[in-house]
Each structure stands twice: as C-alpha cells, then as structure tokens.
Amino acid sequence: MIELHVNGRLHASESDPQAPLLWVLREDLGFTGVKFGCGVGACGACTVHLDGQAVRSCTLPAARASGHRIVTIEGLAASEGVPDGELHPLQKAWIAAQVPQCGYCQSGMLMAAAALLRRSPQPSDAEIDEAMTNLCRCGTYPRVRRAIHDAAR
Ligand code: FES
User: Fold this and answer.
1) Which residues contact 139 (CB under 8 A, 6 or more apart)?
2) What CATH number does domain 2-78 carry, 3.30.1540.10, 3.10.20.30, 3.30.300.30, 3.30.10.10?
3) 136 C-alpha to center of ligand 1: Å?
C-alpha cells in the first residue's frame, strides 16, 4: 500500500510502490488528465507538480512521490487558490488563444507552464522556450508561448 497526497487530499493505493506515478494516478486513483505519451520522460504529456515543481510522472516511482504534495491538471486551479468551479488563468488564456489542436499533450503543457509562471511571473520568450520542453505533435508552440504571455499579464 502507498499513500499519496494528490490535489489536496490523501489517497491510499494498493499499487506497487515502484510503479510509475503516472499509472498510479491514472489507473488507480482516476486522475486521467495525466496523459501517457512516451513513457521515457521525453514528451512531457505526463507532467504533474511535485511540491510545486513540474515533474514527469512516467519515470517517477510512486514511492518517491509519497510524502510530497502532488498536483494534477484536475487540481491545478485549486492549488493556486482559484475558487471552486473557475479555471486557472493559464487555462483561460489557453482557451482565448485557442491553443489546443488535438489537445492530447495540453494538460502536461499547462502544468509545465504553471510551474514556470510560479518561479518567473513575467517570463521572456527565451525563458519560455527553455522551460517548455514538452512535445506537441500538432506544433502548437507559438500559441503556447502567446498564452503564457497573456496569462502573465
Ligand atoms: Fe512521460 Fe512522455 S509520457 S514524458
């Protein structure tokens, strides 16, 4: 058994503690906003926050996340004090800029962007490009950058 603190609540899981956090979150705890892309830490679709930092959950054993504060896209807005039922400023900017195309990678993108804005509230283009290493096969990168700037205003 393993206990994980996810989106403000403690969850108990019977999963193998060495299983990747991605699968425990998705398959056992039902946080399906966390996406599987490559499984080797390359694409960022599985990005969640661990104590406020963006991490790739496909290569992180769940046991290593125990005792830390995990936030998924489902809990992003609440994690930053946004009232219940409202979207995070980045989610609003994403909609306004019509960022997603197929949308599959976008929850990971948003988690990476939120971690960036927390450490750098007004990031430059260079900072955005350096921080946003998530891959998008639709090539939404210019709109991702624009939405991050819009949310930072
Ligand atoms: Fe984790 Fe691609 S699924 S980085």
Assistant:
1) 101
2) 3.10.20.30
3) 12
Indicate the top mutation candidate among 25, 58, 60 to test ligand 1's pocket, ranked by most ligand atoms within 8 A of CB. 58
- In tens digits, what is the pLDDT along the chain, a chain of 153 residues? 999 999 999 999 999 999 999 999 999 999 999 999 999 999 999 999 999 999 999 999 999 999 999 999 999 999 999 999 999 999 999 999 999 999 999 999 999 999 999 999 999 999 999 999 999 999 999 999 999 999 998
Q: Whose CA is nearest to atom 4 of ligand 1?
A: 41
**pTM score of the predicted model:** 0.97
Give the number of other Cβ atoms within 10 Å of residue 14's Cβ: 8
Q: Which CATH architecture has domain 83-152?
A: Orthogonal Bundle (1.10)
Query: String of b and e for 62-71 (b: at least 16 CB within 10 Å)?
Result: bbebeeebbb
Pocket of ligand 1 (CB under 6 A): 36-39, 41-46, 56, 58
